[in-house]
Prior knowledge:
Keywords (chain A): Cytoplasm, Nucleus, Proteasome
Enzyme class (chain B): hydrolase
CATH topology of the domain at 144-332 in chain B: Glutamine Phosphoribosylpyrophosphate, subunit 1, domain 1
Region (Disordered) (chain B): 1-30, 58-96
Strand content of chain A: 25-35%
Active site (chain B): 143 (nucleophile)
Radius of gyration of chain A: 17 Å
Largest sheet of chain B: 5 strands, antiparallel
GO molecular function, one term (chain B): threonine-type endopeptidase activity
Number of strands of chain B: 12
CATH class of the domain at 144-332 in chain B: Alpha Beta
Number of helices of chain B: 9
Distance between the termini of chain B: 69 Å
CATH architecture of the domain at 144-332 in chain B: 4-Layer Sandwich
Strand order of the largest sheet of chain B: 10-1-2-11-12
Number of strands of chain A: 12
Oligomer: heterodimer
Amino acid sequence: MARFDPYENNGGTCVAVAGADYCVVAADTRLSVGYSILSRDHSKIAQLGSVLKFDVQQFRAEKCVLASSGFQGDIKALQKNLAAKELVYEHNHNKKMSCPAMAQLLSNTLYYKRFFPYYAFNVLGGLDSQGKGCVFTYDAVGSYERTGYSAQGTGAALMMPVLDNQLKSPSPLLLPARDAVTPLSESEAVDLVKDVFASATERDIYTGDRLEIVVINSSGTHRECIELRKD
Amino acid sequence: MQTSKQNWAECRLPSPLDRPSLKAHRRPNILAERKAQHEYWRRPSFFLLPQSNPASAGCCFNSNSDPRTKEKGKRRERVREREKRGKKQPRRSPLSHRLRTQIRMTGSMDLPAKGGFSYDLCRRNDFLEKKGLKVPGFLKTGTTIVGLVFQDGVVLGADTRATEGPIVADKNCEKIHFMAPNIYCCGAGTAADTEAVTDMVSSQLQLHRYATGRESRVVTALTLLKSHLFKYQGHVSAALVLGGVDVTGPHLHTVYPHGSTDTLPFATMGSGSLAAMSVFESQYKEGLTREEGIQLVSDAIRAGIFNDLGSGSNVDVCVITKGKTEYLRNHELPNPRTYVSSKGYSFTKGQTEVLSTKITKITQLKQKVEVAEGGDAMEE
């Protein structure tokens, strides 16, 4: 007797890398179910605030971008939920949400559904109040941590070791604790992210089609796409 | 009803060991005896007896110095004397045989009786499943394999991706296997099963060729495959597309893991079979030329490569005609790597943090043992 399974994994991988004054958030655009591809052009990156269908220019969180992989049904619901809560925050506090504030909000939203979780593996990227890049990585129920870089999704296990090696991140076992932000320049970080996705696409069947890269700077948010293997 | 511990112990079912043996009065401690006998033969020093006699070098058991041999010899003499006197040997009761087997089995290795499959763990798996252990599902085959018959013969095609769950294990593996110079076989399913079964049948076909002096026929390969797969009741997970040209003409067959076969003008198997079959069903016609056939097969495999996540990388094609076979390995490479970092990677010393170092010297060998050459008693 097959029970109804409320979850489904739509695959995909998300990565974020924090720099001294920038943040790179990237995700592939493949949506799959089982062994089939549902869409080659489905974005996993959301600029929070823009999912609501009215003029959101003035309501967007200040330079904060969420990339999620997992069950896209839950992810869409989560994005809507966050956008609504963000709007309420702006009405109450008369200012846009900073990235660390959004990080805490996301954690609370996820834990609120602790016993029927959002099947979403999130990576939040942006600039903090001092203008430095920040990346927050989450598990499905809201445990989060500020790190210098992170990968989540089906290809995460393939990417993390390469990122660990290349981003010269100090070991968390060293004392005193050192800053996790990478010393790489923005173009080098983007080059690394492209290469790491191309490598993960070779070996992970759920990653591929196209790569969407969002770079958050002091000058604004810039979006770029490159092609990946389509098999 | 009062069931104290004592009563419960008494209520247990009598085991066969409790039953009094008919000859128990003669050999009252038969169980202890047998156990001791078994333990003697299984003692650790058994294999480390010193080589006192150079004639028995290479043999770990020296029968001359072993005291047990003499006892066994005595028993044999007794049996021989009984036979001389004309008396029949006493019939061994099934009980004593079971006793002997029971004791012999204690401590011995759990090997399957003969070669082949041992299904002992199936009972354990059922038990674990009842206890609530989640059984890992069988992996769906990640492959697209196709075959079609054209005017001069048969064209086979396959993708080149081998998957282990969601990970690509081999980006460029060979799925078209050699059976005979005029017969090739594409395999989908568990890679080990397809390799083993096609190698086995290929060897059998060669022996058959030597015996008959004729070129192998496709139906021979088909019958050998299907009878093997049926014998294993689907546990050998090999789904094959078998094609070839022999004296009776071109043939194309599909073989399923349970042993059923189909004879078809065009066929597809594997997880990408639906994508490939959609191409075949829309574009196949009888009497295709060689170029059309190769193009259609490549199109079908490419459909599987791009639309099925279990298939990918390159297209392999094999064209078999009367008297000639062409194996076009990597006929098409539609998936080059999209991005290579121009900066490259350097792995200099010091990139990985060393937290602590401990150096342990490896001790030298104390003794070198030389094996002397001589007559080997075991070789006789």
